[in-house]
Structures are given as structure tokens and as C-alpha cells.
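May I ask for a protein sequence together with how it folds?
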Amino acid sequence: MVTASDFKIIKQIKHPEATLSLWENGVVYVYYHDYTVLDVELQLKMADSFNEITNKKRSLFIFDAGDGVTITKEARDNALKLEDSTPILASAVIAPNLAYRIIANFFLKVQKPKGQYQVVADVNAAIEWFKKINLIS
């Protein structure tokens, strides 16, 4: 099974709330640290970091989170507004258990992101999904 530590990091941005890693295969892995509250202010900071780490090039993103990470209602509502200003080509959101998958899939149905979006169990499933939709070899 593939894990995040299996990929060579070629660029990294660290914030108190999250770490962004650009892997040698071009995928950006975003890990939100334990008990981070994703509000609009952090969301805007992260959008800037997404553009910085990719040099504004459309890229594949894997989103992962530690324990107790939450997103405010305002940030959820703002997410769709930010889509056009970020370099996210496709997003794989890691939801390691059934409860997280239910929440993530509900968000997908309610918010209806413009880009390709998939809820997956782990990094391996994210990479397999990117391959399945022909975005990575």
C-alpha cells in the first residue's frame, strides 16, 4: 500500500495549521494538523499557498486531516467562490472511516464543486483514482 511517506517531496510549505507538500509526481498533499479550525481567513491563506506551491499550475490535490479538524459554515459557503482562483485540477479527500466519508459525501452533494472531487479511504486510493481518470500515470 502506498502512503504519503513513499513520495519524494520536492517543495514544502508549513503553516501552524497545515503542511503542503509537492511530491515528485506533481501531486500536492495537504495535511491539516490536529484540531485546526478551517475558517475563511485560513482558507484564503491556504489558497495563496496552493498557488505558491504549484506556481499557479493546475494540479492534483490530496487533502488529509488530523484529529478534530473542523470547517466553519462561512468557510464551507466560501469554498465554491474560491475554486476559480486556485490551481486545483482534481481533489481527493481522505476520509478514513465511515463517519468521515458520510460527512464528506454530504458536502459533495450540497456544495457541488466545479472540479473533479472524490472521497477516498487513503493515499493509495487517491493515487488509484487519479490514474483511473487519466490524470496521472
